[in-house]
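User: quick one, sequence for these tokens?
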């Protein structure tokens, strides 16, 4: 499958209806909200280790084409310089506290995924909502919010690696969201997408108080 790296990386949102998490063993290949947040936390808490994952990817470059661990082939804009820059960032980054998975924010992410299932693209919902509006449906946020959307990825690690590299986006805004020290809560969802095959949505907030549900309820998108 060959996709534009910019279109795959530039946004991170999910497309499925949420469902209560089923306890299961998980790894970098797990396709769930829990797995995506676990991967982001691995990068936040041990950036030097995550640098080795990007270094491994560098060996997968063939010209400007990168083959991710999930076998997605991506034609990059920047080629190896984007990977080298990500490796340098990760080797020097200070570890950050882990993100807390929020069930309300997972619901918000799943709302946007469902909204985009037919082929939508971007951060704005069909009702003109943005991520701040959506996460406010299920709780109260403080300290600001952010959103990443990824299309066409088959594993949680593919999602997070692509966003950290952030090829073709010099500001590296997706990477900044992942490593933002002021973000403490996150939600995510995965689902099918009519154009790109899959979509993964992640929302972030500095603080978040759930509304109308237990704070220890863990919600993830339905696996498929």
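Assistant:
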């Amino acid at each position: 499958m060959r996709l534009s790296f910019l279109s795959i990386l530039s946004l991170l949102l999910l497309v499925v209806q949420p469902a209560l998490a089923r306890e299961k063993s998980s790894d970098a290949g797990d396709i769930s909200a829990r797995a995506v947040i676990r991967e982001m936390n691995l990068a936040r808490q041990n950036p030097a280790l995550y640098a080795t994952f990007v270094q491994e990817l560098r060996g997968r470059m063939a010209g400007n084409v990168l083959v991710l661990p999930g076998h997605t082939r991506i034609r990059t804009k920047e080629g190896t310089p984007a990977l080298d820059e990500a490796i340098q960032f990760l080797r020097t980054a200070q570890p950050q506290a882990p993100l807390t998975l929020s069930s309300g924010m997972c619901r918000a992410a799943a709302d946007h995924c469902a909204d985009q299932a037919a082929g939508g693209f971007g951060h704005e919902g069909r009702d003109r909502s943005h991520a701040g509006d959506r996460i406010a449906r299920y709780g109260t946020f403080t300290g600001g919010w952010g959103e990443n959307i990824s299309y066409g990825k088959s594993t949680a690690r593919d999602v997070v690696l692509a966003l950290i590299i952030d090829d073709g986006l010099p500001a590296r805004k997706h990477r900044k969201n992942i490593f933002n020290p002021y973000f403490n809560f996150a939600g995510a969802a995965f689902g099918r997408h009519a154009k790109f095959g899959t979509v993964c949505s992640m929302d972030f907030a500095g603080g978040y108080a759930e509304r109308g549900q237990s704070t220890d309820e863990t919600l993830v998108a339905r696996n498929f």
